[in-house]
Every structure is written in structure tokens, then in C-alpha cells.
Amino acid sequence: MTITSAIAAPTAASGRTAELMSKARALEAEFLSQMLGHASLGQTSESFGGGIGEEQFASFLRDEQAKGMVERGGIGLAEQIFKVLAERDLAQ
């Protein structure tokens, strides 16, 4: 059975496929969130600083922005992760 046939099969495999894709997208979103954090997204300049509360909630903003990026296609990481997960799943 190939990955393509597993994706097309409207059986229990399609439920598993959706689960694997969901996990792959979540992992891509987490990766993007970390990269946005390292790029200093969400950090304010000293003149507009909102204090410690703003620093604590900046990660929530980055997480949502990363999820939005993945929903709009992301960087293709989720598809690659999905392929690996699906191959391993089919091998079992």
C-alpha cells in the first residue's frame, strides 16, 4: 500500500491519515513559533515596552501566528513530516 492509496482510501486509514497530518501540522506550527521567537518577533522596543506581562504573552501571539502560517500552507515541513509518519505507519 502506498501513501497515496492510504490518503485516498475512505476507511479507518483515512481517519489515521487525518490524525497524522494534524500532528505534522502541529509540529510545523511549533517549529515556526520557535523560529519566530528567535527572530525576535513580538519583542517591543524600549519606548513602547508593556512590561513583564507583555513579555509573558508574546509567546501566545507567536503561537497563533505560526498556526495561521501553517493553515495558509506553511513552509512545507508538515508534508515532509507526514510522509515519514505515514511510511512508518504503513510499515507496521
What would you note in describing this structure?
It is a single chain. With 92 residues, this protein is mainly alpha-helical. The protein is built from 4 helices and no strands. Helix 2 (12-38) packs across helix 3 and helix 2 (12-38) packs antiparallel against helix 4 (77-91).
Cα Rg: 18 Å
| Largest sheet composition | none
The structure class reads: mainly alpha
Please state the overall shape, judged from the principal axes of the Cα atoms. Answer: elongated
Uncertain spans, ≥5 residues at pLDDT below 50? 1-10
SSE sequence, one letter per element: HHHH
Mean pLDDT: 82
CA(first)-CA(last) distance = 12 Å
Note the beta-strand portion. Answer: under 5%
How helix-rich are the residues, as a percent range?
over 70%
Individual helix count: 4
Number of strands: 0
Could you list some keywords that capture this structure?
single chain; 4 helices; 75% helix; 92 residues; disordered N terminus; elongated; mainly alpha
Question: Can I get a quick summary?
Answer:
75% of the residues lie in helices and 0% in strands. It has 92 residues and is mainly α.
Can you lay out the helices and strands and say which pair or pack?
Elements: H1 3-8, H2 12-38, H3 51-71, H4 77-91
